[in-house]
Amino acid sequence: MNKSQNPEPDIPSVSKMYRHNRRLSNKERLRLFLSLFKREDRVLIVIVADPDSMASAFAVKRLLSRRVSEITIVHPNQIKRLNNLAMQNILKIPMQPLRGTKRDEYSRILLLDSQPPHRKEFANIKFNAVIDHHPLTEGWTADFVDIREEYGAVCTMMSEYLKAARITPSAALATALFYGIKVDTHDFTKKATTNDISCFQHLFKRINQYWLNKIEQSDIRRSELKYFKMAFLNLKVRKHRIYVHIGKIGNPDILVVIADFLTHVHDIGWVIVSGQAGEKLVVIFRCDGYKKNAGRLAERVLGKYGPAGGHKQSARAEIPIKNLPEKFTRNFTTDLLIKIFMKHLD
Ligand SMILES: [Mn+2]
Fold it and tell me: What strands, in cross-sheet order, belong to the sheet with 144-147?
């Protein structure tokens, strides 16, 4: 849109719609949302695929089933996380890439768990409805805007829509929503409202625990088992700390899995795991957080070379190898990892 032009006068600004929507009851909000759709509509639901957005799209699909003629869920990102692939397969959530989708075949386009400025792929899409829990952004508008940034998950908002519509979720939908809340609130250790907690409790009765276990546990590719072997061969323990450089790896997610596994070792305060993924040295930090700060350590030691930081108990650095001093780049080993961090940890 041309920035010098004012938006059409009959479309209220996003912040006005946002404020208006927040005053509605669940029933009123549902009625307003459903009033966007006609029987012959073909609906496109756009999500940046992760558990919260996938489950939310699944819920909207249920909400609109038999109310519109077609519903398609699309995502601009590639789904790489194994837990997310497992969720999609086990719960049978139909999705396709945004790329290659003929948008003009759809009469209504919705965006869930995200806002138009969040991704460049959204720039030229005119969304009819946006439902999200990220902080409100400006410079866009939609016919329907429901943004509640205090919510831990969009899944909670969607559960409220389903409840208002008197729809009992199937086991697959309940499991998806339950998992979405669990992931986005980090098992309720991150921001969450009492609404998140009560939805979680309400959904619990309907989930399939076996599906949930399978989804939560699927995080290692069979081809990645060899990195565990390398981890055990290369790891060294110094002063209640485990250090290990694993060498060249495919997807850095495996470093996270190995680091999390090593935190289970008794009497260990720190775990520092590194590996080379493409042209980057990826370092994963884990600690018990007691008088320790993983994010600060990562930033202090590696921040000068590239992005490094995180939280008290977990942190990550992704350093372009070309930024590292030459002595590190020739042959990176566990001993070198120990040398780098030893002087920063007392
Ligand atoms: Mn979310």
Answer: 96-97, 70-75, 42-47, 108-112, 129-132, 144-147
Chosen domain end from 183, 201, 217: 217
Q: How far is the CA of 56 from the centre of ligand 1 (A)?
A: 9
Task: Quote the ligand 1 centre to 160 CA distance (angstroms).
Answer: 15
State whether residue 107 is helix, strand or coil.
coil
pLDDT in tens, 118-144: 999 999 899 999 999 999 999 999 999
Structure token digits, residue 200: 């979680």
| Alpha-carbon span 190 to 185, nearest angstrom | 5
- Residue 133 Cα to ligand 1 middle (Å): 6
**Domain end (from 162, 187, 217):** 217
What is the rounded CA–CA span in Å between residue 71 and residue 65? Answer: 8
Residues 274 and 337 sit within 8 Å (Cβ to Cβ):
yes
Which residues have a beta carbon within 5 Å of ligand 1, which is an ion?
52, 113, 184
Domain that includes residue 278, residue range: 223-342
Residues 128 and 43 in one domain: yes
Contact between 15 and 22 under an 8 Å Cβ cutoff? The reply is no
Are 203 and 308 part of one and the same domain?
no
The percentage of the chain sitting over the pLDDT mark of 70, rounded to a whole number, equals: 97
> Are 171 and 204 members of one domain?
yes
CATH number at residue 141: 3.90.1640.10
